Amino acid sequence: MSESVSTRNGFGNGLLREAEERTDFVVMDADLAKSTRGGWFRDEYPDRWFNMGISEQDMFATAAGIASTGRPVFANTFAIFSQRGFEQIRQQIARPSRNVTVVGSHAGVITGQDGTSAQTVEDISVYRGLPNMRVVSPSDAVEARKFVSVLAAADKPAYLRLVRESIPVLYDEADYEPEVGRGDVLQDGEDVTLIAHGAMVHKALEAADLLAASDISARVINMSTIKPLDREVVLEAASETQAIVTAEDHNIIGGLGSAVAEVLTEERPTKMARVGIEDTFGRTGKPDKLYEYFGLTSQDVAETAKELL
Question: For the CA atoms of 290, 295, 296, 299, what is the dihedral angle to 10 degrees?
């Protein structure tokens, strides 16, 4: 984990690389192309990029119309602003199952100094509740880049959650291919399982190192797809370790923790705890200080695992 790159940068590079392979997909922005990295695509392929202005409802409705012709669409804005177009996403993208990827950049309290009004901590629960909608939160820039190809090819709607801050690169681009609905076991362990997504995956890996210093063996799973959830990898963890801890920069209600708890409750009751935002809004501050404030550090994850065991 030497290099650090934001997942929004990985996504921007993914658009450019995908454009080398196929010419049919379209990219749209709601006046935030510089921040979403849609601007990188605009500069190279201006005929396939559309700025819809500060009009998210129009953007998602138009994206649905274009997708109805068989062309995949990536519709970009900040995660918080995507919710302005929720009705259009529900009625015109999710309900008819159009191939539109709603890209929510700048998600979570890791957005930092933009403040509580911009820190989206409920977006996963919002989109996870929509039928036909897949929900993906890449753990690093490599995964974000490669998910562009995966989502464009699937002919189904998706919500792609990205962060602005640079986070450690976990994967080798040459030998990793992500898959919707598959959790990736980054390291094995026998005592406890740590399941995380997005910016919290590297925190889970750091927590595993802290636990190892206390002779606790931790399995770490990158659950970059929250919907559909990899039930099999969750149930394997429940049967092979003593407890499960989920970690996410999102409300503990409706996010990854809730999804994992639903599986365990129905199929294999297991001791578990959820590390995340405790049903509150964010605050203004630097990302690292906010992670300390909200209990999202690697130390917090490790201590939660110790208490559970």
Answer: 120
pLDDT at 227 over 90: yes
Buried b or exposed e, range 239-263, using 16+ CB within 10 angstroms = eebebbbbbbbbbbebbbbbbbbeb
Residue-wise pLDDT tens digits, 128-173: 999 999 999 999 999 999 999 999 999 999 999 999 999 999 999 9
Beta strand pairing status for 225-227 and 134-136? antiparallel
Beta bridge partners of 272: 244
Range of the domain at 144: 4-168
C-beta separation of 4 from 168 below 8 A:
yes
Could you tell me where the DSSP H helices lie in the chain? 7-21, 33-36, 38-44, 56-67, 79-82, 86-88, 123-128, 141-153, 201-212, 231-240, 256-267, 287-293, 298-308
CATH number, domain containing residue 246: 3.40.50.920
On whether residue 173 sits in a domain, the answer given is no
Among the three residues 168, 200, 223, which one is the final residue of a domain in this structure? 168
Q: Are residues 25 and 142 in the same domain?
A: yes
Q: Are residues 13 and 143 in the same domain?
A: yes
42-81 burial code (b ≥16 CB/10 A, e <16): beebeebbbebeeebbebbbbbbebbeeebbbbbbbbbbb
Residues 153 and 254 both lie in one domain:
no
